[in-house]
Amino acid sequence: MSTANDLPFKVLADTFEALESITSRTQMTNILASLLKKTPPEIIDKVVYIIEEKLWPDWKGLPELGVAEKSIIKAIAIATGQSEDIVEKTAKTLGDLGKAAESLISASREKQKKATTLLSFVSTKRELTVSRVYETLARIAMAQGEGSKDIKIRLLSGLLTEASPKEARYIVRFVEGKLRLGVGEATLMDALAIAFGGGSFARPIIERAYNLRADLGEVAKIVAAKGIEELKALKPVVGIPIRPMLAERHNDPVEILEKVGGVGFVEYKYDGERAQIHKKGSEVIIYSRRLENITHQYPDVVDYARRGIKADEAIVEGEIVAVDPDTGDFKPFQELMHRKRKHDIQAVVKEIPVKVFLFDLLYANGVDYTVKPLPERRRALEEIVERNEGLDIAEYITVKTPGDLEKFFMEAIGNGAEGVMVKALHKDSIYQAGTRGWLWIKYKRDYRSEMIDTVDLVVVGAFYGKGRRGGKFGALLMAAYNDEKDVFETVCKVGSGFSDEDLNKLPDLLKPYIMERKPVRVVSNIEPDVWVEPKLVAEIIGAELTLSPLHTCGVGKIRSDAGISIRFPRFIRWRDDKGPEDATTSSELVEMYKRQLKKIVEKPSEGEAV
Ligand code: ATP
């Protein structure tokens, strides 16, 4: 690259030095703006990345520098002709390796100057440019596998040999990950607005472009080369992640509805992993909430999306939720963490199947939906999605009253959701990429606590299994004993915690008690595949007690429209020593629920002195 399209690295080093002594943000922004203005557009992305203390945007999944401290010490030693011991000692005295490199390089140059034969070589030495530094750093990062440690050391020491003492200070700090300029994304965006947009009023345009590209280097390059108008026209691109829209939190249905303008589009809030799914032809990429490429963790989701998203090009968003293969119930989101281990992904896919619940459309076949109101996005989403066994659209309703919101909220948690998302649907309800605002409000269960005690519940029904448990029973309907009314009231459906042996024995165990109709003493809103006479008692533990409109235990005691249920129940063992009337009573469960609430209310909040 000719120097006309490049920048001496010295300019960057001088700017970094100037930034070190500045505390005012305005001053910092102005210094950065003037640096950006004098940077040729061809390399401005590299300058931005270096200021951001990275080599490329994280979502590209490219390697990091990966140079250990010991290797940096070695590289400095080679470049300066000193021992590693001296380098370490100098770093201790001066406070950091960057300063040690600066001082030792300075000393070795002095020595060279004195040796007259070398003088002419030193004075005609090539000036380091940003491109040269960046490309060498990129090669250091890309060196992987066997022998890469030595290659990294060689490349770094070579770079330091070419650097001035001050340049060496910043190169070493960058490689160590300790540049610490204190320049945040917001300051960089302000600087870009001043440099290329005529002032900080252009900041929203820069910000929107950043939200659509998740790459400030790229945004800088576009605006520097083509001007601010070009940024205004940016559209989402399939394959490039969009920074996600985020929600505010609230727990008062009346105020929630006020905030969204009186009418709310209310959806289940699923407890899983957020996924931004990009599809082009048959190619599918999945990005996480933090914009990491997580495609390899979800080969099943790739398949569901490929089959179910009918648009040739699309960007959709949804929540990936783990489901119990036997009961179809949601599982805790921690189950998805098993997918982070890459090696046995196929086995995990079978063991912990997932479902995706889509809730937004950001782009389809050339149309930028981020600027369209929510109802239009959802209509288009329905049009391009053909549901399949792993791909669905989030459950929703439109509500106008707090009562309806509360009812849907109860239904959502009763069905295993974490709460609801209330979304505005007025004409300005656009997809605000990268922004947390009141267009989306999360309304979660307020009170959560661990369920410490186990309970003993009575089997009143059974469900046939699916998947691995096909042809056998896969889950049981469990009830508490209401000793005032002498009835059994349902609490949960349990499908977890059974060993294969337990499951194999179930048909024989249940056989004597299977009934054609609902046993008279059972109060249930749920219809199991087979009814079971209340005889068998099992010990159950769960994550917490919650309210659910599906279950009948203690209805009317806490709320008129919901009973007590157990979230994520697990079978522990049979309690042959207990008869059905010895099971945990409904009123005991109500008391447990109240205690759980009290405990949380009394618990000092984080950071408060105990
Ligand atoms: P946040 O994402 O708001 O920073 P967080 O990571 O703690 O906070 P939550 O408090 O659980 O997440 O709430 C927001 C998340 O809820 C979203 O990022 C998304 O993953 C998830 N979610 C589940 N269902 C929906 C839905 N229907 N619409 C939007 N988001 C949903």
Topology:
Blueprint: H1 9-20, H2 25-37, H3 41-51, H4 69-80, H5 84-94, H6 97-114, H7 116-123, H8 130-142, H9 148-162, H10 165-176, H11 185-197, H12 203-213, H13 216-226, H14 228-232, E1 246-249, H15 253-259, E2 264-269, E3 273-280, E4 283-287, H16 299-308, E5 313-322, H17 345-351, E6 354-364, E7 367-368, H18 374-384, E8 391-393, E9 396-399, H19 402-414, E10 419-424, E11 436-444, E12 455-464, E13 473-482, E14 487-494, H20 500-510, E15 514-515, E16 522-523, E17 530-532, E18 537-541, E19 544-548, E20 563-567, E21 570-574, H21 586-602
Parallel strand pairs: 1-11, 6-8, 14-16
Antiparallel strand pairs: 2-9, 2-10, 3-4, 3-5, 5-6, 6-7, 10-11, 12-13, 12-17, 12-18, 13-14, 15-17, 18-21, 19-20
Bound molecules: adenosine-5'-triphosphate (ATP).
